[in-house]
Design a protein that fits this description.
Blueprint lengths: L12 E4 L4 E7 L34 E4 L3 H8 L14 H4 L2 E8 L3 E6 L11 H4 L6 H13 L6 E6 L2 E10 L7 E8 L4 H13 L11
Parallel strand pairs: 5-6
Antiparallel strand pairs: 1-5, 2-4, 3-7, 4-8, 6-7
């Protein structure tokens, strides 16, 4: 049984080829570009830290993306939310958000830390899909895995609100994987953005948005 203490083994690697389409949800008024990397990870225990932000400067900066729109919704809208029994999506989750479609321009490999891949590392979802209180330990573990896997350009992990979905944290160690912005759409104010986001909210998470669209 996994004890959630990383055993030092090399993780399995997943391939993502140049041309892969990825998705990201971020603030609509963000002062950074949708394909940018955060080059200043927060200190451990910071109240706004993310789940896998690198905790060692040798890994460089990071960004979060997903190979599916549903995964981007899980991480960019629902990550720290409880799915309400009412089945209604809240307006505050969707306001001032945009969905960006990105194209990967490099062939990369990432460390697989999701689903059955975690058992070989002595880990399980209790750690890797934890809430905010477990982020420091999760960051430390992810950093250990990446330092032990120099060929990995990031981690692929389970989305907290749906373990059938995965997302990626890419890092800039060496040379950052190149990402091209293909499109950007406001989640509420743009027809395409609404379609992209509200459809998986309904189909995957069984949440309906019935509020205003402006």
């Amino acid at each position: 049984m996994a004890t959630n203490r990383y055993n030092g083994r090399k993780p399995e690697l997943e391939d993502f080829g140049a041309g892969t389409i990825l998705y990201r949800i971020l603030p609509a008024d963000a002062t950074y570009t949708s394909n940018s990397y955060n080059l200043t990870p927060r200190p451990l225990d910071h109240r706004k830290q993310g789940r896998f932000e690198p905790a060692d400067p040798r890994l460089g900066g990071y960004t979060y993306v997903s190979p599916t729109i549903a995964g981007a919704v899980a991480e960019g809208i629902l990550r720290n939310q409880r799915i309400p029994a009412s089945g209604l999506a809240r307006r505050m989750w969707l306001t001032n958000k945009k969905i960006a479609t990105l194209r990967l321009h490099d062939d990369i490999q990432v460390a697989a830390v999701y689903g059955p891949h975690t058992a070989a590392l002595n880990l399980d979802g209790a750690l890797l899909s934890c809430g905010r209180r477990g982020y420091t330990r999760c960051r430390t573990t992810g950093t250990e895995i990446l330092l032990n896997t120099p060929e990995a350009r990031g981690l692929q992990y389970d989305c907290r609100n749906d373990l059938a979905l995965t997302s990626l944290m890419l890092i800039t160690r060496g040379t950052a994987p190149r990402l091209e912005v293909v499109s950007e759409h406001d989640v509420l104010l743009d027809d395409e953005g609404r379609t992209q986001v509200l459809q998986p909210l309904s189909d995957v998470f069984h949440l309906q948005y019935t509020g205003k669209l402006t």
